[in-house]
């Protein structure tokens, strides 16, 4: 546990809250009468308010992207390897905003929040939200912070989808879009994995139609299974082989179908159990649906080039060779559409064995490329 923080850390950070009383109309046809967003900031906003960077999180992410909440923290924020003094997103240069999206379970208004109409938690009554809804809510936060244009909007995976949506929905409010390990829409296989994860939650006897909080229970089994399925897809065969191989916990076989005999089994069960104790089941359902629904080209008959015709941002797309969930081919789709639309785009394919989770890791070649692009951004 750190008593002194590393020199390249943003150090102690305190989450902030912003409440919005103006209703937010959602793509599903419903609206939120009011809502709260929790966010953190790192670095200083310059006088011209031109150095702001928005960091968008992935499925199970949140606002705590860098630094520490206390000296007792064992780990820093989820993207601390990339955000801080001298890092890719250099907080000596940029003012960084990282938030927890609507529907989340880390402080922003979501299924676990109080529903003023019932006096109970929203639970399953919380409306379905989309990537486009998130971007509109983020634009309102930018307005309150006095940020008329982001120097860059950055995200990996589902976060990269948000960055792309920013460039589409608010072309004049973003100068650079960095979409890392992302895609213009999910493949059928990806949607299938999400559905298996959702079914694990929906069929848990403790789910109670999404109103488990009123029953004083948590669908831990379903959440754990959902996390186990997801976690397998975030890793590559090579990385799992290197980490676990065919190694067993004990020398002797138990010949018991109920026992945990292989190290990979033990690892997955631990990951599932840990996740089930910190994440909300309804939030998981919402986040995976937001992933499934993301398809901005659908508004232009599936033509991604037409969809990107009005974007003004320069793009940086980064993919990883062993990422089979968001494969390099999907990033190349975006790059090809941008080139066809005569937009500025930089595409990097990083040779890395870590699979989809590579975007969270301090892989030297990746960090070098990421830093190089960010260093090009001027105000």
TrEMBL record:
Domain AB hydrolase-1: start-end pairs? 51-338
Q: Which domain of life is it from?
A: Bacteria
Per the UniProt entry, what are the Gene Ontology biological process annotations, in alphabetical order? Answer: homoserine metabolic process; methionine biosynthetic process
Reactions catalysed, semicolon-separated, are: L-homoserine + succinyl-CoA = O-succinyl-L-homoserine + CoA
Looking at the UniProt record, the site noted as Important for acyl-CoA specificity sits at 325
Instruction: Name the InterPro entries on file.
Output: AB_hydrolase_1, AB_hydrolase_fold, HAT_MetX-like
UniProt: substrate binding residues: 227, 357
Which stretches are transmembrane?
A: none
Which Pfam families does the protein's record reference?
Abhydrolase_1
Write out the annotated subcellular location: Cytoplasm
Q: Name one GO molecular function term.
A: homoserine O-acetyltransferase activity
Q: What are its E.C. numbers?
A: 2.3.1.46
Principal place of residence: cytoplasm
Q: In which pathway does it act?
A: Amino-acid biosynthesis; L-methionine biosynthesis via de novo pathway; O-succinyl-L-homoserine from L-homoserine: step 1/1
Q: Among the entry's GO cellular component annotations, what is one? A: cytoplasm
The yes or no answer to whether the keyword Glycoprotein is present is no
Identify which residues the record assigns to the active site. 157 (nucleophile), 323, 356
Q: Which UniProt keywords apply?
A: Acyltransferase, Amino-acid biosynthesis, Cytoplasm, Methionine biosynthesis, Transferase
Q: Which family does it belong to?
A: Belongs to the AB hydrolase superfamily. MetX family.
Subunit notes for this chain? Homodimer.
Which purpose does this protein serve, as stated in its record?
Answer: Transfers a succinyl group from succinyl-CoA to L-homoserine, forming succinyl-L-homoserine.
Name of the protein described by the UniProt record: Homoserine O-succinyltransferase
Biological source species: Pseudomonas pohangensis
The organism's taxonomy opens as: Bacteria, Pseudomonadati, Pseudomonadota, Gammaproteobacteria, Pseudomonadales
């Amino acid at each position: 546990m750190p008593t002194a923080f590393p020199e390249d850390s943003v150090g102690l950070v305190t989450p902030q809250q912003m409440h919005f009383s103006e209703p937010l109309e959602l793509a599903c046809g419903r609206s939120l009468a009011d809502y709260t967003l929790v966010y953190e900031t790192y670095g200083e906003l310059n006088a011209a308010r031109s150095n702001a960077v928005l960091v968008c999180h992935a499925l199970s992410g949140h606002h705590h992207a860098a630094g520490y909440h206390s000296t007792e923290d064992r780990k820093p924020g989820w993207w601390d390897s990339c955000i801080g003094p001298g890092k890719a997103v250099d907080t000596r240069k940029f003012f960084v905003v990282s938030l927890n999206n609507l529907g989340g379970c880390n402080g922003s208004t979501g299924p676990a929040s109080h529903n003023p109409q019932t006096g109970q938690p929203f639970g399953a009554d919380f409306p379905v939200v989309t990537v486009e809804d998130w971007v509109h809510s983020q634009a309102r936060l930018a307005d309150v912070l006095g940020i008329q244009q982001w120097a860059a909007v950055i995200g990996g995976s589902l976060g990269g989808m948000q960055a792309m949506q920013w460039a589409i929905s608010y072309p004049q409010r973003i100068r650079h879009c960095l979409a890392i390990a992302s895609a213009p829409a999910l493949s059928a296989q990806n949607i299938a994995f999400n559905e298996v994860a959702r079914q694990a939650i929906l069929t848990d006897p403790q789910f109670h139609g999404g109103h488990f909080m009123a029953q004083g229970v948590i669908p831990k089994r379903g959440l754990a299974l959902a996390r186990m399925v997801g976690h397998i897809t975030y890793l590559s065969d090579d990385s799992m082989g290197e980490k676990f191989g065919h190694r067993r916990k004990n020398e002797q076989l138990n010949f018991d179908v109920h026992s945990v005999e292989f190290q990979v089994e033990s690892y997955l069960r631990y990951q599932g159990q840990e996740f089930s104790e910190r994440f909300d089941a309804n939030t998981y359902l919402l986040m995976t649906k937001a992933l499934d629904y993301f398809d901005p080209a659908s508004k232009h008959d599936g033509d991604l080039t037409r969809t990107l015709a009005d974007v003004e941002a320069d793009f940086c797309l980064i993919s990883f060779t062993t990422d089979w969930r968001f494969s390099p081919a999907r990033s190349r789709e975006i790059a090809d559409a941008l080139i066809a639309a005569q937009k500025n785009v930089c595409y990097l394919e990083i040779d890395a064995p870590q699979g989809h989770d590579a975007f969270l890791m301090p892989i030297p070649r990746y960090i070098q490329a990421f830093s190089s692009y960010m260093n090009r951004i001027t105000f």
